[in-house]
Amino acid sequence: MFDKLKCLFSFKWFYIVLFIILSIYTFWDEIAIGSETIKFIRDSKKIEGEHEVYSFKENKVNIINLDEDYFGDDESIYDGDVKYMYFRPIPNEKLYSLDSNNKKFYDSFISMDEFKGVLDVLHKNNYMIINIADLYDQVYREGSFRVKRKILNIPKGKIPFVLFVDDFGYSSSRLIIDDEDMQVKMIKVKNGNEEITEDNNVITIINKFVRENEGFSFNNAKGVLSIVDSESIFGYNTGRNISKRSRISTDKIKKLSNDIYEAKRIADNLKNDGWIFACNTYGNIDFKDVTLNLVKNDMDNWYRYVSNIIGYTNLFVYPSGNVIDKNDERFKYLNDSGFNIFCSSMKKMNNKDCFKIQPYVNISRDLICYDITSLHHNEYYDILKDIIINPRKAKKLYKEGIRE
C-alpha cells in the first residue's frame, strides 16, 4: 500500500511540474531567471528590434522570438575586442601647408586622401562600423542614467569598430542639406566661388562611402562627432560672441536665428542618418590645469550654445587626452551631469567589458595616424602602413605635384 501511495505521490508532483512548465509556455509572457528576465514573443509577425535589450520593471529584458531562430544564418554573437578608432583628417592643402616644428603634433593628422584610403582598406579587410549604442544600453536606476554592455550580434566574419572624428572645423566652408536628395553636403568657397562637394569633408566622405559600399556599416552606423566650441558648428555661428554685444542689428538677429536653425536642422539630419555626437567641452579645455569652477563655467556654455543644437549626449571625449580620476570632484560633476561613457586615448583607462549595470565606463581609443601605423608596431593597423605616409614626405611630394 505504501509503495502505491509513493508512486501516486510521485506522479502527482510530475503533473504539477509539467503543468507549471506548460503554463509558462502557454500563458505567461515572461519569467525571471536569476537577475535576468526572459520575455516571450509568440507573434509570428516580425517585431522591429526584437533582438534588442530593453528596460522592463527595472530589470533587463532579453527579447526572444520563439517562432523564429534568434540569429540568422549569417549572424553570430561577436566575442572579440571592439576597436575604437579616432581620426583627425585635414584637407590636403591645409595639412601639407602646416609649418610646425612639433613632430608629434604633425604626425597626428592625416590628409583627406589618406582617410579615404583607410576606409577602403578597412572595408576590404572585413571591418564594419557599428554604433556605440549597439554596445551600451542606457539604464535609469536610482535617479540617474547608467550603462550596461549589450550582446553584439553582427554578420559572421566582420570585425566591429566605432569611428570617432575629432578636431574637425569649418573656416571657409559650411554644411548644407541638399534639397534634391536630402543628403548633407558641404559648400566650399574657392576663389570667391561656392561649390557643393562630398569629397573634402570627413562627414560627407563617410556618408558617401557607406552608401556605395554595402556591408561596411552595421544598421547604417556612421560615427561619433566630437563637438567643441559653439561658434562654428558645421560652419554656422550659433551665438556666443554675438549674444554678448549690447546692440545687435535686426539683420544680425535674423542671421543668427537662421544659423541656429540651419545648424540644428543639419544635426537632426545627421542623427537620423546614423551619426552620434559627443561632448568635447566648449572651449577645448585642458583638464590638467582647470579647476572645478572653470569646468562648470565651460559646461554651462556647452549646454547653452552647443547642446541646444545637437541635443543630449552621454558621451564625453577628453580634450587632449588628459583624463581625470574617478574620485576627482570634476569627474563626479561630469558624471552627475549625465555623462557615463568617457573616451580617452589612454590604455590604462579602458574598462573590461562588463554586462552589469555601471555608473560609467571608460573607453580607450586609437588615433589612426602615421604615428600608430608606422612608428609603433600594431598588428591591427599594419594593414594601413601603405596608406598613411610620413606627412613631411607627403608635404614634399605635394609641393612637387607628385601627390595630389
Number of domains: 2
Annotated CATH architecture of the largest domain? Alpha-Beta Barrel
Helix percent reads 25-40%
In percent, how much strand structure appears in the residues?
15-25%
Globally, the shape reads: globular
Determine the CATH superfamily of the largest domain.
Answer: Glycoside hydrolase/deacetylase
Highest CATH level, the class of the largest domain: Alpha Beta
Rg of Cα set: 26 Å
Q: How widely separated are the two ends?
A: 98 Å
What's the total count of β strands? 22
Task: Return the CATH topology of the largest domain.
Answer: TIM Barrel
Mean pLDDT: 76
Structural class: alpha/beta
Query: What count of helical segments does DSSP give?
Result: 12
Low-confidence stretches: 19-71
- Major beta-sheet overview: 6 strands, parallel
Explain how this protein is built.
The radius of gyration is 26 Å and the shape is globular. It folds into two domains: 2-70, no CATH class; 76-399, Glycoside hydrolase/deacetylase (TIM Barrel, Alpha-Beta Barrel), CATH 3.20.20.370. Strands 6, 9, 13, 17, 18 and 22 form a six-stranded parallel beta sheet that branches. Strands 1-2-4-3 form a four-stranded mixed beta sheet, with no helix packed on it. With 404 residues, it is an alpha/beta fold. The longest helix is centred in the N-terminal third of the chain and has 25 residues, at 2-26. It is 31% helix and 24% strand. The protein has twelve helices and 22 strands. β1 and β2 (36-41) form a beta hairpin.
